[in-house]
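Sequence and fold
=================
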Amino acid sequence: MFSRNTFATCRRWDEAGQRAAECESCCTRADAPPPFAAAWDDRIALVRERGIAPLAAPTAERWFGSAFLAAHPATAGALRDCINETDPEGFVGCARAIQGLAYLDGVKRLQVPLTMIVGALDQLLVQPMTDLAAMLNCRLAIISGAGHLPQVDHPDEVDAVIDRHLRAFAPST
C-alpha cells in the first residue's frame, strides 16, 4: 500500500480485529501539526484568489525535482497541464482532508512490519518520515535524487525497496 491509505487501511483493519501481514508507505505523514496545516491554508487562499495555475510549476518541481523535469520535457509539460486542469474546489477539498490527518495514534499501535519510502528531495516529508520511522522502529528508504513521487521518477529504486520488504516480511507460500 502507498500513501495515507496505508495508515488508514491498517488502522481500520486493526479496529476490526484484523491484521495486515505487512505494509509499505510512500511519501506521506500520519499527522498534520499546525505549521504543516497552515501551509495548506496559504495554498488554499492562493487557489481561491488566483486559481490553480500559480501552483503548477512549484508542485511539479516538488513532485519530481528540476533535474527530472528538465530531462523529461514532455512529461513535465503534461504534468503541468494536468495540474492546471485540477478543479480549484477539488484541490481545496483535498487540502482540507490533508489538514485533517490524524492517524498518528493508530499508527503507533500497528504491529506489522512497515517500510516507509520517501524521496530525498521531498523537503516537506523527509524529516517527518524519519521521525515517524524512528518512533515506529521501522525501515525507512530515502531515495536519492527523487522528489515527492519516487515511484514515478525513480521506479526501479522504489521497486527494489518493495522487493526487499516483501522478501523480508511477506508470508511465504
Q: What stands out?
A: The two ends are 20 Å apart (CA to CA).
